[in-house]
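Hi everyone,

Forwarding the result from last night's run.
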Amino acid sequence: MKRGGFLKRKTPQHVKGHSDTATIKAEIQNLVRDIVIKRDGGCIFRNSYDVSSCNGFTKSYPPRLILQADRLITRANTATYADTRLIVCVCKGHHGWKKWHEREYNTLVKEMIGSEHAKLWERCEQDSWRPKRTSAMDWQFSLQL
């Protein structure tokens, strides 16, 4: 067996689905991201002294900060998929920082989003293990809201 070199795929890898549900969920994702960026006005950690400054800029000129919508509950939980109360705007750098400092990140975010949203977050985390079936019709309905 030859060692070294990269493995080559025999079939193309599909990144996104082509079903009606996948298309609707992608549209929801784009709308929610735009809403959260406008609502938060940028990275929620931009004025925080507890974490490092924002980073993750584009390579174009002039460089712009890359903003992302971070879901506090995973996207796998369809009950909270489009709930903007459980999504915050963070820069690319802080989004990556979350991976290594998740407990500290969650504590800071809970302080920033307020007690009402933090209680909602905790309730949703308790129910997140319960599977919920959804269809394209359900996603279409949430898109119209």
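The two ends are 57 Å apart (CA to CA).

Cheers,
N.
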